[in-house]
């Protein structure tokens, strides 16, 4: 059956969401959702958001957002030159993003990513963040983010960023 991509089907992870059967193909991400995500939310170290379908508590995909900070010299020189000379810069960390295998290849990853970027942009209007950064688990994940114009950091290629200025343009 076709998935319903209404924006209201992404919301904060709650106790009632069914996480046990979630399988994205990476055991560490599955375990995170099962065992850690609720605690992270309660302790306010990460905000997990999940995608579900109406009347079904099964989690089909999720992502987490947290505040973070980067060293300015990690950024590409061209971008650094255009920024104020602060040693450290505020960013939003897209810590994890994963899709259940049963829903793979249908646009759920993109739907989650766009939602995470929109939420990050809205939040940055109140608490500044100059980019969204991600730590890709492997080269496949890296290529997923590059598909959406994320660029690698200078010294750590599996860490990627998309500037908030670029994100703002996406939603103009
Ligand atoms: C990577 C992942 C999130 C993709 O989710 P998905 O729902 O299957 O992807 P979508 O169907 O939304 O794909 C959207 C677009 O991204 C592209 N895409 C998907 N995976 C890609 C990859 N690994 N590399 C490049 N492009 C990719 C698709 O071709 C599609 O492009 P199009 O719209 O131009 O046709 C999913 O496979 C997953 O959860 N993997 C395991 C966990 C993981 O690696 N998470 C990422 C970082 S921690």
UniProtKB/TrEMBL annotation:
InterPro entries: Acyl_CoA_acyltransferase, GCN5-like_dom. Keywords: Acyltransferase, Toxin-antitoxin system, Transferase. Gene3D superfamilies: 3.40.630.30. GO terms for molecular function: acyltransferase activity, transferring groups other than amino-acyl groups. Residues 88-154 form the GCN5-related N-acetyltransferase Rv2170-like domain. Pfam families: FR47. The keyword Transferase applies. The keyword Transferase applies. SUPFAM superfamilies: Acyl-CoA N-acyltransferases (Nat). This is Acetyltransferase (GNAT) family protein. It comes from Eoetvoesiella caeni.
